[in-house]
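Format notes (please read before filing issues)

Several people have asked whether sequences and structure tokens are stored in separate files. They are not. Every record keeps both together, in the order shown below: the sequence lines, then the token lines. Line labels are part of the format and must not be stripped during preprocessing.
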Amino acid sequence: MTTVVDLTSGLPITREFLLAERPSDPEFREGCSVWISDDRGAIGLPRVSVEAVANSWDRREVQVNIAFPSGRVIQVREPCEGVTPIDSDGVARVFKAGGLEFRCDAPFAEWTVTFVGRGLDTTALAQAADDVT
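Then the structure lines:
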């Protein structure tokens, strides 16, 4: 038996897309984030995100965290230049800054997250001690 779940909660498909331009409210925030872990505990991505605030719209915060059971952590946390969210078909379905990109492939069904870049190789203990440089 197949169960169908309506992930839209009644929202229109367009609600899944991103803002096409800078909001007028300088405090308005747009962001995409995921938290991922595997069932075996071999790897975790406790936060992967791109965030933008209207008053600095083209300068976005990128965060990528990859955690391993050994305590090793790969971390990226930096401001990066953002790019237009408008895809080749004219729809605002891409949120990207630096090497991190979120793409809405199918509203309320599928997103693709990609990262190309380098991160700081550190540990959870160093992060907890605020000794990450």
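For reference, the curators noted about this record: Helices lie at 124-128. The chain has a mean pLDDT of 93.
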